Fold:
Amino acid sequence: MKYYAKIGRALAEGEMLKEGAALSLSKTGVFGAQHFLSPAKGVAVFINAFNFPAWGFCEKAAPAFLSGVPVLVKPASPTAWLAHRMVEDVVKSGILPSGSISLVCGSARELLDHVREEDIVSFTGSADTAARVRSHSNVLHRSVRVNIEADSINSAILGPDGAPASDLFELLVKEVLKEVSIKAGQKCTTIRRIFAPRRILKAFAEAASSRLSTMKVGNPRNAEVRVGPVVNKAQQTACLEGLKKLRSECSVVFGGNDHFQPVDADPQKSAFVQPTLLSSNDGLASKYVHDVEVFGPVMTLIPYDSAKDLIPMVRRGSGSLVASVFSNDPAFLREVVLGIGDLHGRIVAVDSTVGSQHTGHGNVVPSCLHGGPGRAGGGEELAGLRALLLYHRRFVVQGPVNYLKDLSASCVDTNLLYA
Structure:
């Protein structure tokens, strides 16, 4: 929110965005055309997942408000209490115009029956629910703009030069531990698949397992605990069912105990999933590894022999939010980026010159694109001022060039969006 407030100062007062240069449509140059983008006159409907009651609301609301579009927040019921408290604080502060934010808690019921042509629906959650949103009869009939962020089998890749104990090797181990512990792996950008050269796989598994064994899982109020619970019992059951599918074609390297004892917590009343590292011997032949997202602290190690078998395996995710590549080999980095770029919204390339200064595999930054193609939903959020385009509608005005100049004078040039 602070980021968008800051970059919003770069936008002069204007009623629309002007896109590109004026076009001449006559021999004498008196008649022409200019493309514009006008803010949508409807409402931005945010249907958010349980794991982001705070961030999911704020990251979407920022560019919507900057576009002048009011928002209606529909948080997932398991964590709606937190979104409710946040919206309550925002309303009480009086920092927003009256009516610019609304909140609906509980079941969405017939919410989508009421959206219209000028509205935008932005959904974050499962691919199954996303399909129902997209195929809703009213959404289809009115051609309502829909932005989706769905399931994502994200990948982290260790290059052939990532020898055991090397800086790249250690950086990826550290990233794996971070991703499995933050929110107990309940992030849309969490690493789900770890690809490593076959000759290094065992060493990586041992290094990761050794450090996972020291991470205490339990009551987050306990200062020693590093991994908390999943959101509720239903999600715990879903994680364990997904883990069972993965175990049918993988071996367990660490964890996987359905009955482990969390620290300072009653396992009967709580919803913990033990951090688990699996290993797939044949990633090309595996099915569930590339298809089942266990939305919790579960990751799978997959060996590769060359970029020629690595790239097809990464692409088996069918579209992901993010992949990270750890290598000092520019040729390898280039081959991977060219091989998987079209099926990923974001690629994080890390070499020794970057070290630990990279923003992180799972960390979404407001200045860069967030979203992903295919299975990940095909949506595009954030990316600085580019995010405003989701809440604007493009059209062209054809007319006298002097009129077009006058109309353009009260507009913000879209070049600012890409500066």
The chain has two domains: 2-150+378-418, 154-367.
